[in-house]
Amino acid sequence: SIARERIDAQLTGPIGQSAEQVRAAHILVDTEDLANSLYQQATGGASFEELARENSIDSATAPNGGDLGWFTRGQMVDPFAEVAFTTPAGQVSKPVQTEFGWHIIKVYE
To answer: Are 90 and 42 in contact (CB under 8 A)?
Structure first.
């Protein structure tokens, strides 16, 4: 009985994370002008998620409002990771360019 309790506690206990993570969404576009326009809209009250669905060229995340889920720094290219990890939760970043295009990033957590 005691052994079973200890095993259950180990299996159902919290699992720690050793890497810093962030939960964010993005809008990916081809041009800086469009990125700046979408940034202005997103910070001016438009729904970030709706802008992502309508404008993002990232076909994997656009349908879900640009949501990337949780990720670590090493999972993203450096310019993207730098902005995602320095933007405060609840904020939208200014556009950032990577090898994939221009991103506007919204950090959730």
So the answer is: no
